[in-house]
Every structure is written in structure tokens, then in C-alpha cells.
Amino acid sequence: MRIVLGVGGGIAAYKAASLLRLFTEAGHSVQVVPTEASTRFVGIATWEALSGHPVSTTVFDAVDTVNHVRLGHEADLIVVAPATADLLAKAAAGLAADLLTNTLLMARGPVFFAPAMHTEMWNHPATQANVATLRARGAVVMDPATGRLTGKDSGPGRLPEPEDIFAAALAAARTDSVPAGPSGLLSGKTVTVTAGGTREPLDPVRFLGNRSSGKQGAAIAEAALAEGARVRFIAAHLEVPVPRGVELVQVETALELREAVHEAAHSTDVLVMSAAVADFRPGENAETKIKKRDDGSDPVITLVRNPDILAETVQNRAETGAGPALIVGFAAETGDGSGSVLEYGRRKLERKGCDLLVLNQVGRSLVFGQDSTEVRILSPHDDPQAEPAALTGSKAEIARHLMERIAAEFSGSSRGRDGSIPVPPG
Known about the structure:
The chain is of the alpha/beta class. It is built from 13 helices and 19 strands.
């Protein structure tokens, strides 16, 4: 495949060198087109050495080949990483001041942007409007990762890791000409799926975690893709590959997941919260490894409650009138002397206020890491005297059942954000 790799003028430009290596080692021919500003971070000689092709930033080189037209016409895929706020704005406005922006205007194949900038820049209404414009035109704009940025600040805006950009960009190229699944039940919808288990650091080498593998979340993302949805995949720790074709956002802790969900909520139609989020985190994260004490005493770990991301998202939607039209929660429950799994699930549905709740029973040999599962899908509109049907099968089969239920909610049987206005189909 012939790939144009555009490199924007941000400090994350150094990561593009690793991305270039991934493309070339996979057998693709890559033409690097940096902006002039980006060459202050990574020089042209580096790009020429790694790609094996001459590199230019201007339309006035290789004029005899009409380079500014040829590159866009011939490219099977254009990837821009990092895509700065300035570059996204130029692309959205259709400016053509250098070789890269000319190439973007001439593109015939899929175009993929991997943004990187400070959190305030990413959250700015102008940037969000530019991203929405590019997506509306068919470009794939990957959400930035959440983590440490330049300096001491952190938050959404970090360039995703090269391996994640590589996988998502190639998936975008593969799916660009592939029609939606046979039914396309969610064609035109954006579905955000959280998956995997969060990890709460105790010190540099230890963490509190859970047994979630991320299999069910990955299956849900794949089922949503098969139904024609654009899928944003917010992944904590996974023991399965990231589904091809999703827009990946990686997180580690519950607080990072919370930030990513709140960021995604304003631009998604459906939010499926299938991640196993830690209820508690250590009150202190030691900067050095906690060691055994010579006096034989044991350390005391104080736990702090993590925020309820699902309930917060529901509340934000109710207060602002904006957010996902449909919010789906997951409940992994164990019954005890105070109540059954179903009773605990119904209490959680009422407490969280979500539109649907997928309930399953968990244990050492149940659900976590397994290929099959049994769930019940609860709704606040259910008859409290009736027991919801149990759905049993592989996690892929359960995911397909869930997509059918979500599509049914959008078809007119669902309720809107205020609990009474029908959500229009399509």
C-alpha cells in the first residue's frame, strides 16, 4: 500500500519515526510529508533515511512531477501524526499553504488524523468544530490519548502510541471501501465502548486491579462496527487484541477513564460502559517501591472511593440536556444473604439511572476471562414482577443481542434524554 505520512509541528513528531518504521516493516511504501515547523523537531534527513524516499515540505520541489497533485492522487492512505490544532484547522478550512495541506486536498483515498496538543487546545470549541467538520467529510480523526503532556500537566491531548495509530490507520484503510454489516442497524451512529479493567497504582511496580479481560467490550465494539457504527473504544487493561477499525483511546486508572468518558460523551450517540472500573484506589501512590520493614510491621493501605462514572454521565446528561441518547451500564454481581444477583442488578439500575443495564453473575470461573456468558438486559421500564429472559451464549453472540436491543431503542421504543421524548431513527 502507498501511504503518505504527514507530520505536524508538535513535539510528538519524534513518535512518527516509530510509526514510519512500523509501516515500512509491514511492507508499505511510505512518503513522508512534514510541515516546515515539524522539521524543527525531526529533520528531513531522518525522514529520508527511514523512508528511502526524498522528502520536501514545499510545492516548489519536484515541480516536473506535479508533486502536490500526484501524492494525494496516488496515496492509498494518508496518515497525519501528530495532527496539531493548527493543522486540523487548516485541513478543515481547506487551506493549501504547503505540500502537506495540498496533498490533503487532493486525497482520493482514506485520510486519518492522530491529534496531539495540550488539553485546552483539544477541548477548545474551535478545535472540536474542526474535528467534527473533518469527520463529517469522511476523515477518521482518532481521539488523543490521556496522559502526561509536555511539561508537568497531563490530560487528553497526548499522541497515541505508534502501535495504536498503526493498527487504527490500517483498519480505517481496510474499512473505507467496505460497506456496513448486512443489516447496518446502527449506520450513521457513533458508539463509544469502554472495556477492560482499570489499574490503580500503589507504587511504581504494584497496583490494584481486577480479573476483567476486556473480551466482552471488544466483542461489543466489533458488533457495533458490523452494524455500521463509528466506534470509539476506550480501553483499560486488555488481554485481547484491540478490534480493528475502532478509534482507540487508552487509559489505565479509573480517573483517566472518567476523563476520557466525559470527553467522549458530547459526541456519541450510544455509550456502553462495559469496563470493569475499580470502586476504590489507594489514597496514596508511593513514589518508590514499598519495601518490607525491618521491624516486621505491615504497611497500612488506605483506600479512597473512585467516582461513579456511569452515574455522573447520566446526571450530566440530565442537567445539560446533552450527551449520549442511550447510556448502557454493566453490572457484574454476586448474590448473598441480602439479595439475589437480579435484586442487586435492579437496585443498581435504579441507583445509576442508565437506560439499559447488562447484568451478569461473576465469580472465579464465571464471566471474567471466559468465552461464554449469561446476561439479562434490564430496563427501568420493565415490569418489576417479571423476570427478564436470560441470554446465554458466546460473548460475541451476547454483543449481537445487545446491538439488536440498542437498535430497537432507537427505532422508537426508547425514550429520549428527558425520559419521554422518542429518539428518532436513523
